[in-house]
Amino acid sequence: MGGLQKKKFERGAATNYITRNSARKKLQLSLPDFRRLCILKGVYPHEPKHKKKVNKGSTAPRTFYLLKDIRFLLHEPVVHKFREYKIFVRKLKRAYGKTEWSAVERLKENKPTYKLDHIVKERYPTFIDALRDIDDALCMCFLFSTFARTGKCHVQTIQLCRRLTVEWMNYVITSRALRKVFLSIKGIYYQAEVMGQLITWLVPYQFSHDHPTDVDYRVMATFTELYTTLLGFINFKLYHSLNLVYPPKVHVTMETLSSFLHGCKLFNKLSITGVKLSALSGSLARVVSTEEEEEAKLDQFPAEGEDVEKMEAREKEQKQLEAQKKLFDGLKIFLNREVPRESLAFIIRCFGGQVSWDKSVSIGSTFDVTDETITHQIVDRPNFDKQYINRYYVQPQWVYDCVNAKILLPVEDYFLGVTLPPHLSPFVEEKEGDYVPPEKLRIMALQRGEKPAQEQEEEDDEEEEEDEEEEEGGDDEVDEEEKAEEKNLKKMEEQKSQGKSLQVKVTPGKVRAENPARLEQEEKAEEKRLAIMMMKKKEKYLYDKIMFGKKRKVREANKLAAKRKAHDDAEKTKKKKARK
Amino acid sequence: MKKKEKTDKKRSLQEEEEEQQLFSLNDKPFKEDEDDDDLSDSVDSVYSGLEDSGSDSEEEEDKDEEEGSDEDDDENDSAADDDDKNDESNKNAEDQSQKKTVKKSKKKEETEEKDVKKENEYEHDSSDEEDIRNTVGNIPMEWYKDFPHIGYDLDGRKIFKPIRNKDELDEFLDKMENPEYWRTVHDKKTASDIVLSDEQIELVNRLQKGQFGDVHFNEHEPMVEFFSNEVMIHPVTNRPADKRSFIPSLIEKEKVSKLVHAIKMGWIKPRRVEDDSKGRFYDLWASEDSSILAKHRMHLPAPKIPLPGHEESYNPPPEYLFTDEEKALWEQQDPSDRKLPFIPNKYSSLRQVPAFSRFIHERFERCLDLYLCPRQRKMRVNVNPEDLIPKLPKPKDLQPFPTTQSLVYRGHSSLVRSISVSPSGQWLASGSDDCSVRLWEVCSSRCMKTIQVGGAVKSVAWNPNPSLCLLAVAVESTVLILSPALADKLVISSSEKFLTGQQEEGPSDGADPVVWSETEGEELNQGIRLKIKHPKVVHQVTWHAKGDYLASVMPEHSSHLQVFIHQVSKRRSQNPFRKSKGLVQCVSFHPIRPYFFVATQRCVRIYNLVKQEMTKKLQANSKWISSIAVHPGGDHVICGSYDCRMSWFDLDLSTKPYKMLRHHKKAVRGVAYHRGYPLFASASDDGSVIVCHGTVYNDLLQNPLIVPVKVLRGHVITHDLGVLDVIFHPTQPWVFSSGADATIRLFT
Questions:
Q1: In chain A, N or C terminus with fewer CB closer than 10 Å?
Q2: Residue B81 — very low, low, confident or very high, per pLDDT cuts 50/70/90?
Q3: Whether residues B693 and B580 fall in one domain
Q4: Confidence label for A498 from pLDDT (cuts 50, 70 and 90)
Q5: Residue B407's pLDDT band (cuts 50, 70, 90)
Q6: CB neighbours of B92 closer than 8 A, spacing ≥ 6?
Q7: B330: containing domain
Q8: Statement: residue B728 has pLDDT above 60
Q9: Matching Pfam families, A to Z (chain B) (predicted)?
Q10: Is the omega angle on the peptide bond into residue B344 within 30 degrees of 0, that is, cis?
């Protein structure tokens, strides 16, 4: 055969990968620039299948990029911009050093900038792709929008993040896309369904951050740069899909305008619309002024057999969804000043409720505390002196729990000063065999429309316990009988084995009813055991692993259940003591 | 400026006058007076700054000039002749004369004349006012105190002191008497007293008050905006433009050419047009083309952040909170080992929830994961574990096989090493470590006979020939042939005959390592007929299917005397192997053909006894073979090994095991095939006997079907030993097992 023989690492996997350092050299970029490029272009290391082969026989830990990816980066226009920027910085330094202020001015005017539009388009060729990947973008933008102007990042970035997140929230309100919310110790999780994609994001609680020192804010800023671009385009598309004007405008009535203007004096840095938007209380201007939304009804298709069932299920789901969207319809909710206004206003408006707050808290309040038609007031303090009779005073968790349960939960559990029921995560979907906390069961019962009778239940519980004890007693008797018999037999056997002559005596045998079902079960179990013996080594390993995982799950569920039981018992005894 | 000019003019005038006086030189006192007057005048004119006087003097001057033009010429000549003492004055005079000539020529053009005058003024540079009365300069006047004069005037003549100096008394008298005393000033330079005039005193007063010297000067005059924003029709100065304003500048030319060059070379770019499209959003996905999609085939999207569970709630159910131990454990663990990255916490209301301190950290870590974490597509094994279990035929369909323990044979007091069933299936022989061989009736579990052999029994083997009733027993280094007399009389007699029938004494007695001997007395009564003395401890005995040949095993390293084959009818022994091939564990005869199986530690060798050569070597893939059994068809072999495995060999296929069976948890001690049914069993130290169904098809293309059908338990594990031997009943699907708990059990 012609040609030179290839050497060991000149073909195959070794040629498909490139280490980070050599990639950097190939691109002629500094490490921070390379990092930025990777972030912007979404190039990530790949773990090769055979690391040693790729690493040319060495086992040193290295990160590998696909050579194709790096080649793809070679032709990126942003790379040239990076180089231009590097040159710009060098020139600027030189001009400063020579104190040529006119040159400094001129250079600063010509500072190179770059746009990320094409990168967004390239990374997300379709809109749905972009929507799928928006979780991190939202989390990041919400975080950055809460930053103070401490120099950790540009003020413009913070303002842009704030603007984009407010726009996003307004979109979610208008499209009523919110599905789940969760108050965690980290922050508030929201989940919305936009164009069939479930999007989850996390918003920190409104506190100032103490910025950690071991975090590289440059990396975060680069990500934010990309994410703001992405989110802007997504917002644009989403607003247009709803026939809304982008950048958004708020419908303003004359009476609210004055309050807006009052607010604008406070926030004169942001534009008026920005402030109005962030109030989350106005409806958005539409391109085509059609106020009534056409309800998308499911088309009826002639279906047969299984399809009918599926169709029915789907219809039912759709109905449920519609009902959920109108969860707070007709409710007038007033927020006290100590509750997180933005979050609650966002949620309540997402589900069709009317919401307002004290004028001095923020602009955009639509009605006053004294309004007689208010149905609920959200309060988060132990007691409240001046109460109106015709409204409920509830704690904020009520709103979140209602959203997750998809029904209006009874307000009694959420009154002021009442110990709140646990707040459950709506993201957990219990499968068979998993541990389900009793609160969840209760909510599920409520969803089915059953009335919970708590006190009765408690009594029942006590009775049941007694019953159980009795039953156990019965079991014990049976056991004792068996034990006695066995003892007899053992004695006889012992005597036999010791070679003593038995007192030959024939006792009538007892007929033992065999449980056919149990027998069958045992047989099955035996069969299974035997079959497992015949498994191949590889499959056996896998099987053992799976079974181990299953067992662990069961163990954990049992542990949780036991813990709960212990807790409940402790509570009960406490209660009893209190009663006595 | 103007003032200065005027003073200059004045001075020049005076000088001229003086010059004239010089020429006349007639009366000194007069001259002195004049000087004084002049001085006062000049002082006056200097400080009053009156323009009128200035203009007057100019006119006068002009007139003078006109009048004395002729004379001047003469004067010049004479002056040059007379004294050249003062060059300056001369020059001045000359200049003056020149001026005059110029003035004469341009008399009528007044404007031009003024210009020229100005030029003149520039030339008289007289910034410091020289004292013109005394020329000694700025020196202490004490230097002249011994001289009669006090200095020299402009003409070089001495200025004399007054004849009598005023003393104190004079001074005092003067003060008392002279009403002008207060306005008299002593001039040191000329040593004369000067009486100030009224105007001069007023001037001094004004200056002392800090006012302008000139009475008439209006200090609050409205300011005339000279350089204002309004464009005047006339130029501010009437100076003609410079030449440089008409020719292109060289420096500028250089600068421009530099810029031009820089632009040409592309170093300087035009100011960028303000691009505001950066923050502007538009419909990016207006035209979705699928061409880019190909690039994304290799793309692995980053996994999403796992959604929070109940334990992350601000108010979780109580069971999710950590107990103290769990909390301690969590704190001890390395952050990477923790199951949860945080401690669940419960707050009674929303307002008490603090900020999460690691929020930014977590975000940052996510960022790092997104761009630094290597991604690999891992196929998630999403198998139903039930699917992994092989589908086997149901054991029910594979009946018959032993399922329950039906009889226990008790009687031995120590572990039962070996058992054997008579070919008829009626009797069971067992050899135990309590130095006895027991014979049992199978159906009743009764011990028919106990034979004390005086040593631990390693192995018993019933002669497979149904027409004989003989039992071979391995006790220490001897093999005993027993005639248990448990059969028809016909069979007993035939076996007796077989033992005693042909006796041939071997030719070489002394060299033979094996010694045959007949027994007598007590032993004979017990049924022991023959003793075959071996050089070493015998571990196993086994019969050939015909019942004439007997093989015994004495495992020992590096010895070629490990296996003997005895022919009982001829009482002959032979050692088939010349060389040791390893530690022999057990041997077996082929049931049909003249083959001999020898199992060493790792492999099984098959020898052709007729051709006297090795035909096959089976690799058992195990560490230490413990037992071997040959299928009654002769094409399959199973090996049990001490490393828990059982290997099934198909002799037609390969020398590697067709199947490795890892059914047991502990060492496999014995294996056995059923003679009629497709069953085989294995006994192990874990106390269980596993019965498997192993169908061997006549069709050579079909592989044997091996299905475990029953796990039989019953033996008690004593001293880490469980079941030691296993054997099938020759006709029934029953299995016997002997254990370390000194029992034998029958499973039916």
A1: N
A2: very low
A3: yes
A4: low
A5: confident
A6: B12, B15
A7: 312-341
A8: yes
A9: BOP1NT (PF08145), WD40 (PF00400)
A10: no
Residue of B nearest to A214 (CA): B361
The answer to whether position B32 is within a domain reads: no
Segment B226-249, tens digit of pLDDT? 778 888 888 878 888 888 889 988
Are B401 and B337 in a shared domain?
no
Disruptive mutation site among A75, A190, A534, A553 for chain B (greatest number of B CBs within 10 Å) = A534
Tell me how far CA of residue A187 lies from CA of A361, B370, B568, in angstroms: 21, 21, 93
> The tokens of A86 are what?
């590097």
Structural domain tally of chain B? Answer: 2
- Measured in angstroms, the CA of B485 and the nearest CA of chain A are apart by 27
B316 in contact with A, Cβ within 8 Å: yes
Q: Does B569 touch chain A (CB under 8 A)?
A: no
Give the predicted TM-score (pTM) of the model: 0.64
B74 beta partners: none
Going edge to edge, which strands form the sheet with A178-183?
Answer: A178-183, A187-194, A197-204
Q: Which two tokens stand for residue B343?
A: 């401690």
Interval B265-321: pLDDT, tens: 988 777 777 766 666 888 888 876 666 555 566 778 888 889 999 989 999 998 889
What the block records as the tokens of A33 is 């620039």
pLDDT of residue A425 exceeding 70, the answer is yes
Test A125 with B289 for CB contact under 8 angstroms: yes
Mean pLDDT of B31-45: 40
Q: Would you list the DSSP string of B557-590?
A: TT-S-SEEEEETTTTEEE---SS--S---EEEE-
- Predicted confidence (pLDDT) at residue A417 exceeds the cutoff of 70: yes
Give B369→chain A minimum CA distance, Å: 9
CA-to-CA separations, A120 to A131, A288, B334, B447, B632, in angstroms, rounded: 12, 29, 39, 92, 76
Average pLDDT of span A283-309: 56
**Shared-domain flag, residues B399 and B335:** no
- Residues B589 and B676 reside in one and the same domain: yes
Taking the C-alpha atoms of residue B156 and residue B84, their distance in angstroms, rounded to an integer, is 12
Instruction: Answer yes or no: is pLDDT of B8 > 80.
Output: no
Higher pLDDT among residues A297 and A64, named by residue: A64
Which B positions 582-601 lie with beta carbon below 8 A of chain A? Answer: none
d(CA A370, CA A353): 18
CA dihedral B47, B48, B51, B54 (to 10 degrees): -60
Are residue B567 and residue B649 in the same domain, yes or no? Answer: yes
> Does any domain span residue B526?
yes
Q: What is the CA B563 to chain-centroid distance, rounded? A: 67
Which chain A residues contact residue B342 at CB under 8 A? 185-186
**A497 to B350: CB separation less than 8 angstroms, yes or no:** no
Cβ B285–A72 below 8 Å, yes or no?
A: no
- The 10 Å Cβ neighbour count of residue A579 is 6
Q: What is the 8-class DSSP label of residue A507? A: P
Lay out the sheet containing B416-421: strands in order across: B416-421, B427-432, B436-441, B446-452
Closest Cα of chain A to B292: distance in Å?
Answer: 7
With a pLDDT cut of 70, the percent of chain A lying above it is: 82
Q: Distance, in angstroms, between A141 CA and closest chain B CA? A: 11
User: How are strands ordered across the β-sheet holding B743-747?
Assistant: B405-410, B743-747, B735-739, B723-728
- Eight-state DSSP code of residue A370: T
- Judged by a CB distance cut-off of 8 A, whether residue B344 touches chain A is yes
Nearest-CA residue of chain B relative to A185?
Answer: B314
Q: Mean pLDDT across the stretch B471-481?
A: 87
Hey, what long-range contacts does B238-241 have (CB within 8 A, 24 or more apart)? Answer: none
Name the DSSP class of A7. -
Domain shared by B669 and B601, yes or no: yes
DSSP class of B313: B
